[in-house]
Amino acid sequence: MGSARQPQRRAVLTGGLLATAALVTGCSSKSDGTGTAQATPAAAAKTPSPSAGPRPDSPSTAFARLMEGNERWVGGALQHPDQDVRRREAVAEEQKPFGVIVSCIDSRVPPELVFDTGIGDLFVIRTGGHVIQPVVTGSVEYGPVTSGTPLIVVLGHQRCGAIKAAYEAMRDGKKLPGNLQAIVRTLRPAYEAAVAQKAADPVDAMIRAHIRQTSAELRSNTSLAPLVKKGDLAVVSAYYSLDSGEVEVIAGAPAA
């Protein structure tokens, strides 16, 4: 009797193993409708991110690269160039970004995404209301002076909370708490320019005035002015729309 039952037990075990294998196979692949199993995306080899190409070596080519990236951002066609391990390793020993972005801390304005750039492409300096003081200015100077970075973009943005708070504080004669008041003091020239304009949207006028003033200050900077004069550096004033994602150039776009 024992020997007669042995084949049945083997059959049951074999059938169970086959069923388990089929279940595992079904979890890791899918059918294309013809009964042929296809590999799932998780099993497919990862494709490296595209390369953005050679580093731009002039203000005009750097500016063009950024604006092309912004067009992709606006159109929802991001390429995420140079954002993989190979790029990380390539720039580990040395960096040579082609652009400096001076922008606000606002979480809705990430420069690397706004311009669809990769690792090692940009020096990004972010402060409340994109205000600059000596330490910040030194950070802006670093790229052009030490790495030959050919482009600076001062990027203000629509509905800037920091500038709105500063506008209201100055309008109402109030002080903001702590070191926020330092931002208010820095923004006073822009506030005065906006008040003089008597614009329908004084906060937006103040944002744009501050962009222009900051750009002018950087163009006349002792370390940067000679580079601008030689044509090795451009300082672009730009305004970012939260609604559309588009970067509007106000002034300073380098000639092609």
Structure in words:
- This protein has 256 residues and is of the alpha/beta class.
- The chain has 2 domains: 2-43, no CATH class; 59-251, Beta-carbonic Anhydrase, Chain A (3-Layer(aba) Sandwich), CATH 3.40.1050.10.
- Helix content is 47%, strand content 14%.
- It has a 5-stranded mixed β-sheet, with helices on both faces. Strands 1-2 form a two-stranded antiparallel sheet.
- The termini are far apart.
- The model is unreliable at 1-45 (pLDDT under 50).
Q: Quick summary of this structure?
A:
With 256 residues, this protein is of the alpha/beta class. It has two domains: 2-43, no CATH class; 59-251, Beta-carbonic Anhydrase, Chain A, CATH 3.40.1050.10. It has helices spanning 2-28, 59-75, 85-90, 111-114, 134-147, 161-172, 180-186, 188-197, 202-219, 225-230, and strands at residues 29-31, 37-39, 99-104, 122-127, 151-157, 234-240, 247-251.
